[in-house]
Amino acid sequence: MATTAGVIVVLSCRGNIIYDRHWLATYFVIWYGVPYMTYDIFAMYLSHYYRYHVKGHEDYKQHSLRTVNSFVRREFLLVLHHIALLTILLPITLVWRERDAGALR
């Protein structure tokens, strides 16, 4: 999906590709980027949980704060990456795009 959206946006730009705007770029971040990152964190947790649940680990009989904590500790960089994208980078991207679009008007 990202490649297809990127190709559509690039082919739609008529002038300078850096400064041209396309509605799909903004909506892609909001309607695909945010839900995907959220889903991916949840899917990674479920994968972590069931990996240990199947192995018979005592703490993994049911979901708990302990299993979430274990997941975050074991997969800290992946979780940090997703949280940073959701809370810092995606909002900055949207604000930056809007600011630059306003300057072009």
TrEMBL record:
Keyword Nucleotide-binding: no
Major place of residence: membrane
PROSITE patterns, per the entry: TLC (PS50922)
Membrane topology: Multi-pass membrane protein
Bilayer-spanning residue ranges: 25-46, 76-96
Domain TLC: 1-105
Compartment(s) where it occurs, according to its Swiss-Prot or TrEMBL record: Membrane
InterPro entries per the UniProt record, alphabetical: TLC-dom
Signal peptide positions (record): none
Alphabetized UniProt keyword annotations: Membrane, Transmembrane, Transmembrane helix
Domain of life: Eukaryota
UniProt feature coiled coil, ranges: none
The protein's name: TLC domain-containing protein
